[in-house]
Amino acid sequence: MSAKQEKETKEQKELPVDPQKVELPAGEQTKEMPIIPSDAVLFPHMVMPFMVHEPGLLKLIDDALSSDRMVAIVAVKEPKEERKELYDIGTAAVILKATRIEPDQVRVVVQGVSRIELLEIISDKPYLKGKVQVLEDYLAHDIEVDALVASIRQLFTKVLELSPQLPGELKAVALGLDEPGALADLVVSHLNVSHQEKQDVLETLDIKERLQKIHQLLLKQLEILELGQKIQEEVRGRMEKAQREYYLREQLKVIRKELGEAEGIEAEVEELKEKLAKKKLPDYVRKEAEKELKRLARIHPTSAEYTVIRNYLDWILELPWEESTEDHIDLKKAKKILDQDHYDLEKVKKRILEYLAVRKLKPDVKGPILCFVGPPGVGKTSLGRSIAKALGRKFLRISLGGVRDEAEIRGHRRTYVGAMPGRIIQGLKRVGVNNPVFMLDEIDKIGADFRGDPAAALLEVLDPEQNKNFSDHYLEIPFDLSKIIFIATANMLDTIPGPLLDRMEVIEIPGYTEEDKLKIAKYYLVPRQLDAHGLTKENLKFTDRALLQIIRYYTREAGVRNLEREIGAICRAVAKEFAEGRTEPVKVRLKDVEKYLGPPKYLPEVAERVKVPGVAIGLAWTPVGGEILFVEATKMKGSGRLILTGKLGDVMRESAEAALSYVRSRAKELGIDEDIFQKIDIHVHVPSGAVPKDGPSAGITILTALVSLLTEQTVRHDVAMTGEITLRGAVLPVGGIKEKVLAAKSAGIKEIIIPKLNEKDLVEIPKEVRAKLVFHPVSRVEEALPIVFGKKLKRRRAAKKKT
């Protein structure tokens, strides 16, 4: 067939065909039609599929599709004989669909339209073609016909009940047919009767006589089915379990052999048996696998359940039930690995070495679940890799950020389409051992919705008392997770549910100081980026002043992720120069930074921002580290309203109201006119209005901004503060002191006011940072205000008293 003809056939096979609208000549008129000899008998209104691969028939199908799609289906008298002799009566049919499977093979679906008589063969090349005449059914309707129809429906219903291979929908179709002739054709086309008996019914044009023949065939078929059922019940009752299983297996083998499927299925089952015999499995797992394998051997491969069981067995065989790596704990080597991979973090490294020491002394200890908490880019994930390297274990990481479906942890039930185990089991299959270092990244970003709560599912995973028998919904077999070292990472603790947090030992990883970042850049980031961009230390060098410039004016973070990006940007630019032909080495100095990275992204603005009254400098904690926070206040004519803007949370709004109440209650002492509050509106704004802000630690900063506004005195530009206040003027402790202090140091702050109860937290701050800052621990607001305003506030109070 030509490419054009193939295209036409493909297009035509998609055309909708309504057999009811096909018109054929009736009575004495004749019509020339292509003839398809068939081994089966087709009845009007019935649909029959068959394969066509003979060249002549392929040509016949192409010609029919290009014309009226009509063909004559005529049964052969002896299908098994080579010489095909046709019956005189057949069926005119319309081609519903023709699908080309291979270049020389087409699958055709036809539907019978009416009975025809083959008058003569007019040609046999390239295919049979003959003159046909349409035959009309005739019916003398009487009460006997109605009785036959009712009896046929009743008998056919019983045949359907005893014949599981026939679709149950046929019952509704038979009951819905009002035309006796169509009912007879429907019933006989689905009966297990001989070729000759079906042809005899096709040739019977008298519908009453046809109904009588169908009635006899139904009685005979029903008798055979009832007798067969009775024999099966008797045999089933006498057979022992082993005999019955043997008989069924042998019967199944014969059936599959007849269908040509035996070799593939048996080979697949045998292959699974061999894998199962070689695989190390606990007894309870092996028992379940063998049970499922027996079920698989009895199921037809085209069944949907066959694929489900096969996939389930593959998962069981591929999971590391008893495969594990041996620990090699050498504390000196572990310390060396931690020092090589991470700068500073001495407190964290000390806790990790203690953890490894306990495991060395007691290998089967149910150790705590470590949770590394800190800003992005401080090395939480890489610490997990270092622990795995120190132990000689494999490392596995999954990200839990955005997970909202409980099935992501526990897996889906096998009843669902496309069901799979959860991420825990999937990860173990991927890593191939049952004792890896398993990192649960971003555990603080798990969500929950109508599909369940993944955090609740993690309770079993992270509980040493429960995870020995972890149950995944897909496997439905307990899996031992107790040999795994679980490590979680998070940016904050607030969003982790209490019961889950209780199962973990929290290790806080603070941000880096400027000096830390410089050393990390020199010894870790620059070598890594040089290697990543095909450069060597002979090609490119950075001076310390250039790196400090990048740290101070191009990044503002607790970690070093953005710092590495900026170093990478310079490396890319230098790599381009060498690719274009440069030969002499490059040394990046302070003056060269702006050439490669552009103008500075962050500039000192503290002194400029506090030049006017009503502005105070606070300190804030964020999930990505500490930040300085400017609080601005202004006044205007009004009626005593307090306006708050800057996307402030409820707690921060309450802090502002408490600060104003304190200022009003102490107005006389502060040298503020007590009557002014009824005449003005006060507006407090915290810039960066697109960023949500909340928490009580800005209370003292808001109070200072209000005092500055109402006394018209500016605050010192080198002093920042943090602390919660009460209506009585007490300063309460807050969190995140180290991150806030580091942010203040980076911004050029010289002195910091902190709550007296936070003085103990200063030991966490590096010595070199503490040496360059002055800390003022205060327990009341009255102690803080003189530090911020100096002698200016005292002079104003004195002036107020004189007036």
* Total tally of structural domains: 6
CATH fold category name of the largest domain: Ribosomal Protein S5, domain 2
Biggest sheet strand order reads 1-3-4-5-6
Sequence stretches where pLDDT stays below 50 over 5 or more residues = 1-17
Quaternary state of the chains = single chain
> How many extended strands?
24
- Count up the helices: 30
Q: What's the end-to-end separation, in Å?
A: 113 Å
* Structural class estimated from helices and strands: alpha/beta
Largest sheet: 5 strands, mixed, barrel
Provide an overview of this structure.
The structure is a single chain. The chain has 803 residues and is of the alpha/beta class. It folds into 6 domains: 3-134, Archaeosine Trna-guanine Transglycosylase, Chain: A, domain 4; 143-235, Methane Monooxygenase Hydroxylase, Chain G, domain 1 (Up-down Bundle); 242-318, no CATH class; 331-508, P-loop containing nucleotide triphosphate hydrolases (Rossmann fold), CATH 3.40.50; 524-547 and 555-597, Helicase, Ruva Protein, domain 3 (Orthogonal Bundle); 606-802, Ribosomal Protein S5, domain 2. It is built from 30 helices and 24 strands. A 5-stranded mixed beta barrel has the order 1-3-4-5-6. The protein has a 5-stranded parallel sheet with strand order 8-9-12-7-13, sandwiched between helices. Helix 3 runs parallel beside helix 5 and helix 12 (331-341) packs antiparallel against helix 13. It is elongated and about 125 Å long. The termini are far apart. 33% of the residues are buried.
